[in-house]
Structure formats: C-alpha cells, structure tokens
Design goal:
- With 439 residues, the chain is α/β, with parallel strands linked by helices.
- Strand 16 and strand 17 form a beta hairpin.
- The protein is globular, with a radius of gyration of 22 Å.
Length: 439
C-alpha cells in the first residue's frame, strides 16, 4: 500500500497486545508502521484508556495534538475511552472513525476499505475480541498473549465491565497455538494478558490448568503472568512457580489494606486473605516479587484506613506499588457514595505511598546483590552494555560488551546503581543460558 500507519497506545498490557497485533498485521500487508505519532503518517490510530479521569485527559491530549499536527491524515480512536464515550467522540471533529473494543480487530479492514474509496461504518464489521493474530514483529522482546477479556466482579469504583464487557475466555487451543507461533518467531518471553486472568475457564480448563499446558510447550522461552486479581487460587497454583519456566513475579491488585474500604469497593477478598497469599508465594519461592496497585482517597477512607494500607504494604514488602488517586467514574456505584475525599488529601496520600514504594523497591532489589538472575537482554545501551530484566522482574545492566539482544544470560548481581528513573542491579559477567535445557 506504500502508506504509513502510526500508533499511540495508552493504558494496560491488554491494549499493548492489541496494538502489537494490529501493527504486525498492517506490516504483513505492506504498510509501514511506527509508534511515533509525531512523525508524518497517512493514518493515526490512538488506542485509549479510560480507567481514571487522568487516563481520559491523556487520551484527549493525544487526540488534540494529532488533530493539530496532522489534520489531513486519517485519525482513528479505539480502546476503552472510545467505548465509554463513543457517541461524544463520533460527534467530534478530532477523529474520523471511532472503533469500540468489540470491533477493534476490524481496524485493518476498515483502513483498507477507506483507501479503496468505500464508505463504511466500524460497527458493521463482525464483533470479535479474540480475533488477533500473534504479533510477528514488535518493539519488544516479550510477546503478549491475550487469553481472556472482560470482568464480572463489578467493583464499585471500576468502569472496566462497562467498556470491556463480561468475562470471556479464549479457546485453549487458540492460546496454545498463539504461543507456539511466537516461540517459533523467536520470542523468548511470553506474557499472559487479560482483564481478570484468574477467571479463565474454557471447556472446564481453568487458569491453573492452562498455565500447566503452556509450560509443557517445548522451546527456549519463559512465561510471565500479567496483572491478576487476588482471589480463587489454590495451594497447587502457588506450587506452579517451582517450574523453571514460570517467572516468580505477580502483580496482585491490593487496592487497599483496610477491610472497611475493601468492602466498600466490593472486592472479592479480604486484606487478611491477600496477606496470606503473599506469605504462601514466598514460602514456595523465597524472594518472590509481588507488585501491586493501591487506590488512595476512596470515598470514606479515613486516616486510620490509610494507615492500615501503609502498614500492610510494609508487612508484605512489595517490590513496587503503582498508586492511583481515586477517580470518580460516571455510572459506577462509588460515584454515589458519600464522603468523597478532597483532592489535596488524595495527593498527599499518594505521595506517601510513592515514597514508601520507592524505599521498598530499592530494599527489595538490594537483597539480590550476590545472587543470580536469568536476564533476558532487551537492548544495548550507549556504553555498549546489555540491559534487560531478570526472572523476578528486576532491571539489570550487564557491564560486558558484545552480548546479544533477545538472549538469556545467567549473571551474578554485584551492585545497585540509581538510574534516572529507578534503582538498577548490575552484573560484571554473563553466561549463556537456555531454558529448554534447564531442569
């Protein structure tokens, strides 16, 4: 087609997977693709997020800037904000097409129809949230695989069930075939993504059994589980992490350490259960990295509730905390709750969590000095040194030149340095490592 498609992706790894798949499909059809929305392109596709007001504002800024810089190009907005504010966006002059999540897989056909001179409506294409081919070429060394979409929990603050729909699971063989493909393409790390992974169930194959079948696929790769809700797991699930291909890291969403606030949020677990899960994971695999999300300033959150969250975070000792200031989402139950918290209080509490997270993150990573990690090299920095992540999802710089990207190396960690954004572990020497040969 000799045309250029530019993408901007906001939000979660599920959005990133869907963008990767679309980019790869466009490339297979002869388009030039880029993730630089500042560059000149024929089409700009903005894959949006709407989980918070801040997410909406970021998406709007991208749309406004794209309109200002590239007014004559085709502009497509998709993703969760496109689903949540579909009618308003359809009436806007900022975009040419609004494609909701149900029709996102049709974007390639939509673009081709547009350039063929056809007048078309995205809603006329077939709905299918799983019709994504695994991406063959991406900007990452990790391959994201979508196994599930939607959620049935209806937490009082959350808009995701509205914009992603009810929980649905991808057929087992499709998942396994996607993983076989990305391994054959040369990807060394597979990341399982979805809205609520733990609810996966297809033909009586639950998430635990699916992971077992994935781990049985031959090849030199490892598996990482994306963000999960902390409910419904058994002892046997925790024991899966003894498998050498399953990385000892989970992002488990706590949201609050206060039992009162968890009930108001309508979360499906207690703080006590969450803490017990964290203990069991680290009993099975010492040093297991648990990262989390925390919402501050939920309606009715008292100082004691907030202190309970800080205290639990310190006891669990998270490897990192992603903190959100509670954001009112229209149509959710929490919108109607009394005792909305002032923005200044949210900001102050968020800053406290951020500082605690930074301290815990540095302490967690410092514990790895003198220990080994299997690092997947993602890039070579300006000094010629390799950088990547260990199996515990800790960033590492290997101070050895002439190493290869997309390759596993076993290293002994010798120090910790402060980069621009975060503390990074260092290693002086590296030895090639093959997961397919490990036991």
């Amino acid at each position: 087609m000799n045309k250029t498609i530019a993408f901007k992706t906001l939000g979660c790894r599920l959005n990133l997977f869907e963008t990767d798949s679309l980019m790869s499909e466009f490339a297979e059809r002869g388009y030039k693709v880029t993730d630089d929305v500042e560059a000149e392109a024929d089409v700009y596709i903005i894959n949006t997020c709407t989980v918070t007001n801040q997410s909406d504002q970021k998406s709007k800024r991208v749309m406004n800037r794209t309109k200002r810089l590239h007014d004559n190009s085709v502009k497509i907005v998709t993703g969760c904000m496109a689903t949540n504010y579909k009618e308003q966006l359809q009436g806007s002059d900022k975009v040419d097409y609004v494609v909701d999540n149900d029709h996102k897989t049709s974007i390639v056909e939509l673009v081709e129809a547009h350039f063929s001179g056809e007048t078309t409506d995205p809603d006329l294409f077939e709905k299918d949230v799983f019709n994504y081919e695994p991406a063959k070429t991406t900007a990452h060394t990790r391959a994201l695989i979508k196994i599930q979409d939607g959620c049935n929990n209806f937490c009082t603050y959350c808009i995701i069930p509205k914009v992603r729909g009810r929980a649905i699971s991808r057929p087992v063989e499709e998942v396994l075939e996607n993983i076989r493909k990305v391994v054959s393409y040369g990807f060394k790390e597979v990341v399982l993504t979805g809205v609520n992974l733990g609810t996966y169930n297809n033909n009586n194959i639950d998430f635990e059994e699916l992971v077992k079948q994935i781990l049985a696929i031959p090849g030199n790769f490892r598996v990482r589980i994306s963000s999960m809700e902390p409910d419904g797991f058994t002892e046997s699930f925790f024991k899966l992490f003894h498998h050498h291909k399953l990385t000892p890291h989970l992002h488990l969403c706590l949201q609050s350490g206060s039992e009162t606030i968890l009930k108001k949020m309508r979360r499906m677990y207690t703080g006590q259960l969450f803490e017990s899960m964290a203990e069991k994971l680290r009993e099975e695999v010492p040093g297991f990295n648990i990262t989390t999300d925390i919402i501050v300033g939920f309606p009715g959150e008292t100082e004691q509730d907030f202190e309970d969250t800080l205290a639990m975070s310190k006891r669990i000792h998270f490897g990192h905390i992603h903190t959100f200031k509670y954001s009112v989402r229209k149509g959710t139950r929490a919108e109607r709750l009394p005792e909305q918290i002032h923005g200044d209080v949210k900001t102050q509490r968020s800053e406290q969590v951020r500082k605690l997270s930074e301290a815990m993150r540095e302490a967690y990573r410092r514990n790895f000095i003198g220990k080994t990690q299997i690092v997947l090299v993602e890039r070579i920095n300006n000094e010629g040194f390799a950088t990547g992540y260990g199996e515990n999802y800790v960033p590492v710089i290997i101070k050895q030149k002439n190493l290869q990207t997309n390759t596993f190396y076993k290293v002994e960690l010798t120090g910790l340095i402060q980069s621009k954004e975060e503390p990074v572990l260092t290693a002086e020497k590296a030895a090639l490592f093959m997961y397919e040969q490990a036991t």
